[in-house]
Specification:
The longest helix is centred in the middle third of the chain and has 41 residues. By secondary structure, the protein is mostly helical.
Length: about 625
């Protein structure tokens, strides 16, 4: 049995020797003293995010690797979008010198949340600090990770930090042509700091010799372009020739300095042409940025959190997605959906909205069939470059339309211009009956037949879906509806009760309570059972106005002459509860209206009216107090 704490742990406890640490506590591993308490609190209610964070904080404080692996692995099964905890998990593996396990954690995290700039940068920094940079395979591996990073996250509007890091790394390697290639890609990418990249690119061109920053093909083309438009020779400077019989000063060779001046002018012309060729690309990219700027400015929380988003945030995501869909770029739409479902992971509408865009993918001629979210990082390969990426063209954007390359001489005769065929008149005699046509006549279009899925198969599909993605209210309600339609009312009720217990203490518990009460009242015709469900829910959440309102509506739906007492008790329960004054005022007004329409006692009506007047005065006094200062 291993001792507690990292001191007694082996120097490099790899995954192969810690399989037991990922199982139950009775596997031969001794966990910290309070680990079981925090573990059971999180496992008993997986939707309690606070319980999970307390568990992870505890294992970090204890610095117990086996307990940390068990806790983090279970946590990420429910919350894979928390990139900060992936970093903490990798840092803990690194503290124990578990190099292979550290990389595995990074790879798992990047598969779960490939748009996380922080996680990519943290992973690259880890590789730079651990690999031997004198080895060529280390350079190739880091370059491959950079390529995988920009392929997965380079289209993100806020990916500037990743692009800048890639540029600086290639500059440190001394590969200025690679730097130009990266700038050619990012200059066509609508990002937040698009103008900053443009200014940096111009500095890169102006401060380095063209032969060092341009590919041989582009340099040759630029030189041939300038040769067709020769630069005028500058005037010869006076005093470069000595009078007859006198020698020139040392270092001066007559007109030899003119060639150096000419070379400098050629360099400047090349730089101007290189920049001007990218100017149109920059202008087009600037227009794309301006179209998306307001949407991006409205995103206040781009990361995942269990707290609900504001309505304005949700509306902004809907409008942004609608715009990107209408723009017609499938790949950019997918990337935006990937960003959206991170921030809006708990909102089912966005998961449903993305479904039509996942299949089918565009053809290979149009876009990359691999979604950025599906880029897998294989630990066996030294290079992490994905198979195909279409984030940017493979070759740099060279000239715009007005400065196109000189056309190559074709090895075949040029095509003749297209001429429409002459109209020919076919005599009626030649139009024979359709039996002699070599193709069968077209069949009329028939809509596809609707396939009926058997109920048992539907049950298996929904159950499997819920096992993979637990906690989705829509899936649970689909299962309940299916059982109800099959007449399995007891099973439908059990499903709702199970959901209520699983979400106890959360807003979903009252949601399922209302669903169960409605089923008992409307389907089973059992008002008493429905009343019991809602009353028990109100004992746990007495300040839930929705529960009070639903109970009142059910009491209203019964025979008012026989159910007046239960309805009045519903009103009294609401008025005694810790509801806000505005809600109590509404219930008090409804009580007066109920007694006026259906009440059997005038004394009850007068008493309710007097109490309502008191509530009105108290509410008015509270409203005037802040106004008077």
């Amino acid at each position: 049995m291993a001792a507690e704490g990292p001191e007694a742990a082996p120097a490099s406890p790899g995954r192969g020797g810690t399989e037991g640490a990922l199982g139950d506590a009775g596997d031969g591993v001794t966990y910290p003293p309070d680990f079981e308490k925090f573990w059971q609190a999180a496992r008993s209610n997986p939707h309690d995010f606070t319980a999970w964070t307390e568990l992870l904080q505890y294992v970090e404080q204890e610095n117990h690797l086996f307990a940390a692996r068990k806790a983090f692995d279970a946590f990420f099964a429910h919350y894979p979008y928390c990139y900060g905890y992936w970093k903490k998990y990798a840092d803990m593996e690194r503290r124990f010198d578990c190099g292979r396990e550290t990389e595995e954690v990074f790879e798992r995290g990047l598969q779960s949340i490939p748009l996380s700039m922080d996680l990519w940068i943290h992973y690259i920094s880890y590789l730079q600090s651990t690999l031997d940079m004198n080895l060529p395979e280390s350079i190739q591996k880091i370059r491959g990770v950079f390529e995988a990073a920009v392929a997965a996250a380079g289209m993100d509007f806020r990916s500037d930090k990743l692009w800048e890091l890639y540029v600086e790394w290639e500059r440190e390697q001394g590969d200025l042509r690679a730097v130009t290639g990266i700038y050619d890609r990012v200059l066509s990418m609508p990002t937040q700091l698009y103008n900053h990249h443009w200014e940096k690119f111009k500095e890169h061109v102006l401060h380095n010799p063209p032969k060092d920053i341009l590919s041989p093909e582009e340099l040759l083309w630029v030189q041939s372009k300038l040769a067709t438009d020769p630069v005028p020779k500058p005037p010869e400077p006076e005093g470069t020739e000595a009078p007859p019989g006198e020698d020139l000063p040392p270092g001066v060779e007559g007109k030899g300095g003119a060639s150096d001046t000419q070379e400098d002018l050629d360099q400047e012309k090349i730089r101007e042409l290189v920049i001007s060729m990218r100017q149109q690309i920059y202008a087009q990219n600037e227009a794309e940025v301006s179209k998306r700027w307001n949407f991006e400015d409205g995103i206040k929380r781009p990361y995942f959190h269990v707290k609900p988003l504001e309505r304005a945030q949700l509306r902004n995501w809907r409008d942004y997605l609608d715009y990107e869909i209408a723009a017609g770029s499938h790949e950019r739409t997918i990337v935006l959906f990937e960003r959206c479902v991170i921030a809006c992971a708990l909102y089912e509408e966005f998961w449903i909205k993305v479904r039509p865009f996942l299949h089918p993918y565009p053809s290979e001629d149009q876009l990359d069939p691999i979604s950025p979210a599906k880029i897998l990082l294989s630990p066996q390969k030294s290079s992490y470059r994905p198979k195909k990426t279409h984030i940017a063209p493979k070759k740099p954007h060279l000239p715009p339309k007005k400065t196109s390359y000189p056309p190559k001489k074709p090895s075949y005769p040029p095509k003749k211009p297209y001429l429409p065929p002459k109209k020919t008149h076919i005599p009626p005699k030649k139009l024979k009956s359709p039996q002699k046509t070599s193709y069968p006549p077209k069949k009329p279009y028939l809509p596809p037949k609707k396939t009926h899925i058997p109920p048992k198969k539907t049950q298996r599909i929904l159950r499997s879906f819920e096992e993979v993605v637990p906690g989705l209210a829509m899936v649970r309600l689909r299962r309940v509806s299916l059982e109800r339609r099959q007449g399995n009312l007891e099973e439908a009720e059990n499903l709702l009760l199970e959901a209520m217990r699983a979400n106890e203490g959360l807003p979903l518990a009252s949601f399922y309570a209302v669903k169960l009460a409605r089923q008992a009242c409307k389907v089973q015709k059992n008002l008493g059972k429905a009343r019991k469900v809602l009353v028990e829910a109100l004992e746990k959440e007495p300040d839930n106005a929705r529960l009070h309102a639903n109970l009142l509506e059910m009491e209203f739906g019964a025979d008012v002459r026989q159910n007046e007492g239960n309805t009045m008790r519903c009103f009294e329960r609401a008025l005694r509860s810790p509801l806000p004054d505005e809600a109590k005022l509404v219930f008090s007004q409804r009580r007066v209206e109920f007694l006026e329409d259906f009440g059997s006692s005038i004394h009850s009506l007068l008493t309710a009216y007097d109490e309502h007047q008191k509530i009105l005065k108290q509410h008015a006094a509270r409203k005037r107090a802040p106004e008077n200062g």
